[in-house]
Amino acid sequence: MSALRERHFQVLVAPVISEKATMVGERDNTVVFRVSPDSTKPEIKAAVEEIFKVRVKSVNVVTQKGKFKRFGRVVGRRSDVRKAYVTLEPGEVLDLFQGGGA
User: Fold this and answer.
1) Which among 50, 38, 41, 40 is positioned nearest to 8, based on CA atoms?
2) For 19-29, what is each residue's pLDDT tens digit?
3) Which pLDDT value is given to residue 5?
């Protein structure tokens, strides 16, 4: 596996499965991914196009800061999460859950 292809798999961490991500996906043909903190928009676009064989229209990135939480007397902090909203070209479909439903 080439170094560039390995980097594509390091950029995309996981798909985001939430109510908001599902609604955005249905409305705007957008898929939401957790991405590595040091990834850039061109890297994310290239990774999605290479791995899933789809055409990407645009990429928007947001960094969600971790919340402070208390665990009894101990104060902790959740990790920051970087998410990418990847909008696909019209007519493109990215089905993360392949398989039949019944």
Assistant:
1) 50
2) 999 999 889 99
3) 81
CA distances from 48 to 15, 51, 85 (A): 11, 5, 11
Give the whole-angstrom CA distance, residue 66 versus residue 48: 26
For 91, the 3-state DSSP assignment is coil
Mean pLDDT, the chain, whole residue set: 90
DSSP 33-79: EEE-TT--HHHHHHHHHHHH---EEEEEEEEEPPPEEEETTEEEEPP
The closest of 23, 91, 24 to 56, measured between CA atoms, is 91
